[in-house]
Specification:
Two copies of one chain form a homodimer. By secondary structure, the first copy, chain A, is of the alpha/beta class. Chain A has two domains: 14-281, Aldolase class I (TIM Barrel, Alpha-Beta Barrel); 290-326, no CATH class. In chain A, 42% of the residues lie in helices and 13% in strands. Chain A is built from 14 helices and eight strands. In chain A, strands 1-2-3-4-5-6-7-8 form an eight-stranded parallel barrel, surrounded by four helices. In chain A, strand 3, helix 5 and strand 4 form a beta-alpha-beta unit. Chain A is globular, with a radius of gyration of 19 Å. The first copy, chain A, starts with 17 loop residues before the first strand and ends with a helix.
Amino acid sequence: METANKKGTLISYRPDIKILDATMRDGGLVNNFRFSDEFVKDLYKANIEAGVDYMEFGYKASTDIFKEEDFGKWKFCKEDDIRAIVGDNSTNLKIAVMSDVGRTDYKRDIIDRKDSVIDMIRTATYIHQIPTAIEMIEDAKEKGYETTVNIMAISKVNEEDLNNGLELLCKSGVDCIYLVDSFGAFYPEQISKLSDKYLELGAKYNKTIGIHAHNNQQLAFANTIEALTHGVSLLDATVSGMGRGAGNCFMESLLGFLKNPKYNLTPVMDFVEKHILKMKAEGVVWGYDIPYLLTGVMNAHPSSAIQFLKEGRTDYSKYQQELIDEN
Amino acid sequence: METANKKGTLISYRPDIKILDATMRDGGLVNNFRFSDEFVKDLYKANIEAGVDYMEFGYKASTDIFKEEDFGKWKFCKEDDIRAIVGDNSTNLKIAVMSDVGRTDYKRDIIDRKDSVIDMIRTATYIHQIPTAIEMIEDAKEKGYETTVNIMAISKVNEEDLNNGLELLCKSGVDCIYLVDSFGAFYPEQISKLSDKYLELGAKYNKTIGIHAHNNQQLAFANTIEALTHGVSLLDATVSGMGRGAGNCFMESLLGFLKNPKYNLTPVMDFVEKHILKMKAEGVVWGYDIPYLLTGVMNAHPSSAIQFLKEGRTDYSKYQQELIDEN
């Protein structure tokens, strides 16, 4: 039976499942991290009331590499900026930030956890950067943080390299390894097999497994629940799916699905009513559209689709031919 | 292994799989069947070029029950109106119409197939109407048509009644029985089990099985491909998901997924560029939104969500409470 290796039922809940709100980090890629303080404060409150477990505030990018005036402050997530929102964060909601390999001065900018309001450092790496990612993970671990790692763009990685990369990470101090569908290219039956692969290694090395999905084919939620039924336990979502290109798994869908009594959809809907509808009316654009479907189907980076839409183009067939030429 | 009962692979194709375009029928519920002739002609051409197998033109509703001036002509699908678009339809695209139990004067309005350009009569029934549906199916069968049946709203039907209804239909002359998720309430793992149930009975009685999904939880495409990997073979989709409320499985997604060389996404994208973008700009509204998520999660008819959006309301939390009171 197909259900043999499913964990839990549609009526019960698994206490090991945790939700991470990535709205400001992946959504920040849509608006260059220019969120108003009111948006951030209200999102923080909504996440607390909704029972969300982690809130990712943005990237910990190096100001030596990126000019501060080119971005909103959540590209850099300085300690004082986070504290201006959360104070000492005496809540159950944990605070996460993302460090990109090669874009973060982690030795300088990530301070000891005892001096920080941040709880979790999430390292994002491509397959060929894993040794550097491990140095960053070990640094964060030594400083006292919970750690996760995203291996990005694995739909373009061959299986042997992926296995070897996973083995290396499993032998590191990282707490959680993320299954990431950067290009929204995977179908649920592929997520099913990948989840089993990640979970099997995770069980051997005592790592939890997370999932971060993209909505190019309107499969972000489907892939997230496929992964969780196999045992994946750290689930990324964003409010109204806000995220680069086609965006992510909708927080609303995930909260509607999960049965843990601590989760509550209402504050997130109130946040959508107050902030997301306004943001969309002001012309901030993300979410499923044909160009993203095409990059998803072709397992390509969404950058050219983002450009296509920014230019106001609608000649989908011509774009499809351009994509075929470039891939 | 979970893949044990999967039919086919992601790289191969199954020649038994056929696509039905339900844009004008389910989409007609959005705009009261008021499609321009140019829209219908272009959709007909696009479907032919895309390799779509069936095109559903609308309902065969009785003009004794519904006033003709209240609807566009595709509510009634008169022979002459279809012929004005397709002539004698000397193409590989077959033509379907839907008959609702209790709303169609099938004895009068469905003529012999030899005199008609229609190929397939689709009967839509609630569980308690199945005996009447069977009379309609046998009538259509005798007149020479391919026949399908949709048992609607099965997410509200208990398992014993569903089993008994399916047995009755299996013993009728119907060619294909549809698994229908009227309220967009099912998750893929439920579709998986239901597909196996329908397919097992179908195999015993030599019926093919179809799927008609709704996108309340952004799962219409995921549920459609879940069903097809189990062996379901007649797949409903609509252009850009056009259909009542949250709409249906996107034709674009389905054509992007299927590997049969006869299918071609390009003409459908060209149709979207020419007609759907315009229709949306003119204010015709369908597709995923929070109120539809709520009716999906609560397994409720989308009518109150349609009303909520029509009134321009955005107080999602209050609506959620109203739904809880009413269900």
